[in-house]
Known about the structure:
The protein has two domains: 1-24 and 59-106 and 143-193, no CATH class; 196-346, no CATH class. Helix content is 3%, strand content 42%.
Amino acid sequence: MSYGGTSTHFLTSTAAPAIIDPEAGSTYSEEILGGVEFEVARNVSLGLRYVHRNLPQILEDIGQLPAVGYFEDACGDATVDYFITNVNASTATVNCGLSSLNSAFEDPAHKYDAFEVTLNKNFSDNWSMIASYRYAKLKGNFEGFFRSDNGQSDPSISSLFDFPTNDPSYTAIGTPQFDFPGDIRYQGTTLGQGVLPNDRPHQVKLYGSYSWGALNLGAGFNWGSGRSLTLLDANPVYANAGEIPDTLRGEGMQTVDGFLERTKSETQVDMHVDYTMKINDKQRVVLMADAFNLFNRQEATNYDNFRDRGFEVANPNVGLPLNGGATVNPGFQDPRQIRLGARFEW
Length: 346
């Protein structure tokens, strides 16, 4: 394979089992929750709540050599060997005695803060309602056990900390000499602590029901911000697609619908109706119907954010409404669905 005109060997991750740090602990989360709820009218309650969540410690596999080190003869390493530990800013790295490869890992960050207002009416006078509005921010450099930005589901062995992230040599040496794409620092906190893919600043939910004799009607309304978008490049070391951010997280990408920092807001209206027919005092038949996405809204919910399908292998689908990165799974809301049913009760 040729990197920037310089031939070198093809690099892979090791087939050997990862080494596990015997002193390492499990990933865990912390949550702070506080709020008040009080009755503002008969059967009507108003609630205010604040939620904070973070991940103080994560268990992840790492390679201690900077990405460029695998292309330097002084390091003499042809495969990526992994060490599973509680990676943070004090985790040791290797520079093969080359000051140009000085780099460091960074503290994992996953910070969620939300403010929520709720308004609920208990069932009375033939109707009920549950309503809420939430403003939230999700920032950091670590999603969790599942990476929704590239579809990777590898708990504790994701690719987020495979190489030191506070690494200026990636672009200083890797880009001009080996055509490294993106900037690995966008994967960390030094430059890259933007919003995570599941950052949804605004969420509105409204559910209500009304009963009129044997007839019961229900409706649900959901509206929320779309997912943030970040263009991802292939990792130059082991050529996996969708690994290295091309920009700060959440700064957007070019799509078939124009340049977008996040997908369009997601809106859905659902309806329910049921009618009860009594047979006798103990038996009855309930006829019901449900409509999901009543207005058949089909906005794009995701875009293929893989610039390439491998190192220096273009992805022709980049920017199309597809899920999971370089896949053929459509990234649209589910179309309208109608469900009919009958239930016999005794």
